[in-house]
Design goal:
Layout: H1 5-8, H2 15-31, H3 41-48, H4 56-61, E1 63-64, E2 67-68, H5 71-80, H6 92-101
Antiparallel strand pairs: 1-2
Length: 102
């Protein structure tokens, strides 16, 4: 459920595959549901072939445990879940600061 798109298609990997996994975990923590609900690898592969990241503008506007998700957090999670690794960012220090402050 936490595999990056490039990992699913057996392309070369780097730390940005881990950023995608972090985005999946963050999404699950913020919404109380997994980003990918299927459990078998065949179902996940089929579902992912037509997957696009969720609309975080809508997620940011919804109430979550009595609080509104900040635009900064919504934007960061959306960035982490980008299909293209180059769109996920490369600055681990920035991601760590975000994790410790949000």
């Amino acid at each position: 459920r936490y595999m990056a798109p490039e990992q699913r298609t057996l392309q070369p990997l780097d730390q940005r595959a881990d950023y995608f996994a972090l985005g999946c975990v963050a999404y699950e923590m913020l919404t109380a549901k997994p980003l990918f609900a299927r459990s078998s690898s065949h179902e996940l592969k089929r579902d992912f072939s037509r997957w696009t990241p969720p609309d975080f503008r809508r997620l940011a506007a919804n109430s979550l445990a009595g609080q509104v998700l900040s635009v900064k957090t919504a934007r960061r999670v959306q960035q982490l879940l980008a299909v293209a690794p180059s769109d996920r960012g490369r600055d681990l220090a920035d991601i760590a600061r975000w994790c410790s402050t949000e």
